[in-house]
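Support request, please re-run this one:
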Amino acid sequence: MKNKMMKMLAVGLMAVMISLSVNVADVAAHPKTVKVRVTKNGFSPATINVEKGHKLTLVFYRADNEGCGKEVVFPSLNIRKKLPLKKNVTVKITPTKAGEINFSCGMNMMKGTIIAE
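Re-run finished. Output below.
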């Protein structure tokens, strides 16, 4: 009886471990979403880390009307998006190589960086 219980426990534990390893792999394969708050002080967060080859969705939210955060520009990607006050604006990218992708406000005063590794 004791051996049978130990075998059942071992099989159950192995099933849990396999399930966890599959879930970790699934999480790594999913895209990343980052909410970026835009205020008179700039972008928050201003630095975003992502794995190259993985989809990244940035959701910009301009919280106040002060400063020059009325738009976001990604020069190297030829992306320019207006940021209406108190609205979410989505920018989707997939970095294909390691390195930095810079973004800024329309006046190039507020700056941010995506670091793809």
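Strands lie at 32-39, 42-44, 47-50, 56-62, 71-74, 79-82, 88-93, 99-105, 111-116. The two ends are 53 Å apart (CA to CA).
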